[in-house]
UniProtKB/TrEMBL annotation:
Keywords: Hydrolase. It comes from Aquimarina litoralis. It comes from the Bacteria. Residues 699-759 form the Glycoside hydrolase family 65 C-terminal domain. Pfam families: Glyco_hydro_65C (PF03633), Glyco_hydro_65m (PF03632), Glyco_hydro_65N (PF03636). Residues 324-690 form the Glycoside hydrolase family 65 central catalytic domain. This is Glycoside hydrolase family 65 protein. Belongs to the glycosyl hydrolase 65 family. One of its GO terms (molecular function) is hydrolase activity. NCBIfam families: PRK13807.1. Residues 14-267 form the Glycoside hydrolase family 65 N-terminal domain.
């Protein structure tokens, strides 16, 4: 834990007291989004202190030219980056001629932020004494509408406390923005039209190179003492900015309110020539509804989400706050409405990692969306990768692979690889296996086999071909080896025979061939189409199976464990508990050379394989590997604590499981990795959900049936979660006294609890 200022609360994230050192961290923590756009918790009014301005639009990106000192063949030319979009939230405020700026006020008191996760809104309030000695109370409430997902709304209230005040509001939209993270300080946006009409203004821009057309719009309403003011604004514009000025005199204790509706319309959803008129129409619709009515719709929309997605924890407020924060941010980032979109590691909260899609989606996020929404949402995520299959084949061709072998990118926006760290882009190839595992996971959970003949088998064939070609036959070992890789543990680069990578390669080939036979038998038309398209023949299948059958796995007889990679035992095996705390996190304290020579593991590596293929190993094997590798793991990846929590729970080590759960659930709230100001760890938040449902709840799908092994930390009185399984919604309540199940649906559901079979009938409570 590196920070502890967020107040414990079951449903809200709360900060009290103004501290300039916390501003950028809070801008991340209090971010809002609606799946179509997102906004860091920047102040609406001027702030001259350190800040990280960030507004983002789903699917809009820029190909920032790669910048490396030594070019290597195969490097992607561009790093696709989520763009800091034109700023729609800005409101310059002057009070009796003095600009409101918390960094320059004489006194700031009663400062409070709240992110209300239950209802989906963010609010900030404070009192301030300005340099002209005017004292004011300010409250700002904003949200991004789930119903009108091109619209955000702000209610900005100013009350003079010690004297009458002339208040000037200048709401503005600004396309003259830059990214915090850019390689060459390129100009990302080209603004080609600035217009205004009445209380509305619009800026039409397009991204350079990718030519996404975006209209940033605003429409304002001014109120005094609750009465709508019929005023015409003073208009100021330049090439990239439009502001509309309003002046009102408020008596002492009376409140002036500016309601600002703003947001983006995008050529992804409208004809580019229609984006301005579309913006005007949706903003008019929002303003006619009014701020309060739109907020009521927001509360109802979030209520529907929580009805299915909520996890209730009884007796542990910090644990409860943590899981709800994670679930809330996941739903702010992705709602499954658009198969063109995916889940960026930072969501709408920052620019690190380019805002692009990683293997995290397939390995961590799909289970959350399958269980808390419906199979169509997960199917959309799989379809996203199928739509990028041709690009994955092109990516492999650039590296010398042939015959339809597919290498899915480490980082992408449009299917092209756009990551340029050699040891990751070209060596962290295990991500390819996550594509096949996600299909397998989707099938076992939903029972929907139709995806495989329609799309999935082509993906699996491309992936299997890659593993076939990437493996090398070692005459010394008389086995196939995979050389020069980086496993999930990125603190080991360019190593040979990463166990997780080799195991995944073997499994991908075998699972692909298994499904080729099933499609051939049961879906002959699809089979003929796929074979004609891929030109796959039995000779190639036999060659792939030989690679799988003869795959090499490094193993230590002394320790009775699979080795993370060939040279792991050559390291100086000093455990983390013997590492001076002043040296942590090592990725911020040590040279890269020192990290690579150390035994320290960034995240679950071999143990990631044991998590994904749990049924392939005994509990004793899991225990040996957990005891061997966890003491060397520094958990400096956000994806690590959740896997360890699940496995500790499987081993009935509940104290460890609980500790790992708190770390994953409060990773950002408590800033464990000292980097929250850069944005939140969105994809790992799905792992937090898994820590409870798969870890403590013991949820597995075995033989088309839900299986549970419920456990509960001693710190909790109970916990409850919901699972949408093949059209039936099962509510699971675990307490210190036992477990109850309640089923919504139209037919009985067979489940297993601690290995025993039970049948639950709809709308009845079953206790175990």
């Amino acid at each position: 834990m590196n920070q502890d200022y967020i107040k414990p609360d079951n449903w809200s994230i709360i900060e009290e007291g103004f501290d300039v050192e916390r501003v950028k961290s809070s801008e991340s923590l209090f971010s809002i989004g609606n799946g179509a756009m997102g906004q860091r918790a920047n102040f609406e009014e001027t702030y001259t202190g350190p800040t990280f301005q960030g507004s983002y639009i789903a699917g809009v990106y820029y190909p920032d030219k790669t910048r490396v000192g030594w070019w290597k063949n195969g490097y992607p030319e561009y790093f696709a980056k989520v763009l800091n979009a034109p700023n729609w939230i800005g409101i310059d405020v002057e009070i009796n001629g003095e600009k409101l700026d918390l960094h320059r006020c004489k006194v700031v008191s009663d400062f409070r932020r709240e992110l209300n996760m239950k209802e989906g809104w963010y609010q900030r309030s404070f009192k301030a004494i300005l340099r002209n000695n005017t004292e004011v109370s300010v409250k700002s409430t904003r949200f991004l509408s789930l119903d009108l997902d091109e619209v955000g709304a702000i209610k900005y209230e100013v009350t003079p406390l010690n004297e009458e005040a002339v208040i000037s509001f200048k709401p503005y939209i600004d396309a003259g923005i830059t990214n915090e993270d850019s390689n060459w300080d390129d100009k990302f946006w080209d603004t080609y039209e600035v217009s205004h009409k009445g209380n509305a203004a619009f800026i039409s821009s397009k991204t350079m190179k990718t030519e996404f057309h975006v209209c940033t719009g605003m429409l304002n309403q001014l109120f005094l003492d609750g009465e709508l003011q019929d005023v015409y604004p003073v208009v100021e514009t330049n090439k990239t900015l439009a502001s509309l000025g309003y002046v009102v005199t408020a008596k002492q204790g009376k409140t002036a309110v500016l309601c600002k509706f703003g947001g983006y319309t995008v050529s992804l959803n409208h004809k580019k020539e229609d984006i301005a008129s579309a913006s005007g129409a949706v903003l008019k619709q929002a303003s006619e509804s009014g701020f309060d009515a739109l907020l009521d719709l927001q509360k109802k929309a979030w209520s529907r989400i929580w009805e299915m997605a909520d996890i209730v924890i009884d007796g542990d407020v910090k644990a409860q706050q943590g899981i709800r924060f994670n679930i809330f941010q996941l739903n702010q980032t992705y709602l499954g409405k658009d198969a063109r979109l995916n889940i960026g590691p930072k969501g709408f909260t920052g620019e690190k990692y380019g805002g692009s899609t990683y293997w995290d989606t397939e390995a961590y996020c799909i289970p959350f969306y399958m269980a808390t929404k419906n199979q169509q949402v997960a199917r959309s995520l799989l379809k996203y990768r199928y739509n990028h299959l041709e690009k994955a084949i092109e990516n492999a061709e650039k590296l010398g692979f042939t015959n339809g072998a597919a290498l899915y990118p480490m980082v992408t926006m449009n299917g092209e690889e756009c990551h340029n760290e050699w040891e990751i882009t070209f060596e962290e190839i295990h991500r390819n296996g996550a594509m096949t595992f996600a299909i397998y996971n989707y099938l076992r959970y939903t029972g929907d086999y139709s995806y495989i003949p329609e799309m999935g088998l082509e993906v699996m064939i491309g992936v299997a071909r890659f593993w076939h070609q990437r493996a090398t036959f070692s005459t010394d070992k008389e086995k196939y080896v995979i050389l020069g890789v980086t496993g999930p543990n990125e603190y080991e680069n360019n190593i040979n025979n990463n166990w997780y990578t080799n195991y995944l390669a073997k499994w991908c080939i075998e699972y692909c061939v298994e499904n080729i036979e099933k499609v051939k038998s049961d879906y002959k038309t699809d089979y003929d189409r796929i074979i004609a398209k891929t030109k796959l023949d039995q000779k190639e299948i036999d060659q792939m199976l030989e690679v799988a059958e003869k795959m090499y796995f490094p193993y230590s007889e002394k320790h009775q464990v699979y080795l993370q990679q060939d040279g792991f035992l050559d390291k100086e095996l000093i455990t983390v508990e013997n590492l001076d705390k002043s040296q942590r996190p090592i990725n911020q304290k040590w040279s890269w050379d020192r990290i690579l020579r150390s035994p320290y593991i960034k995240q679950a590596d071999t143990l990631q394989g044991f998590y994904m293929f749990e049924d392939h190993f005994t509990k004793d094997e899991l225990e040996r590997h957990f005891d061997f590798y966890e003491p060397f793991t520094v958990h400096e990846s956000s994806l690590s604590p959740c896997v360890h929590s699940i496995q500790a729970a499987a081993l009935d080590r509940m104290d460890q499981a609980y500790t790992f759960y708190l770390r994953t659930s409060r990773l950002d709230l408590d800033d464990y990795n000292k980097e929250v100001e850069e944005g939140l760890h969105i994809t790992s938040m799905a792992g937090t959900w898994m820590s409870i449902v798969e870890g403590f709840g013991g949820l597995r799908v075995k033989n088309d049936t839900l299986s549970f092994a419920p456990r509960i930390p001693k710190e909790w009185k109970g916990y409850t979660f919901n699972v949408n399984f093949r059209g039936s919604i099962l509510k699971v309540n675990v307490s210190q006294d036992g477990t109850t199940f309640n089923l919504e649906g139209e037919k009985d559901l067979l489940i297993y609890v601690d290995g025993k079979e039970f049948t639950i009938s709809p709308n009845s409570l079953m206790s175990v």
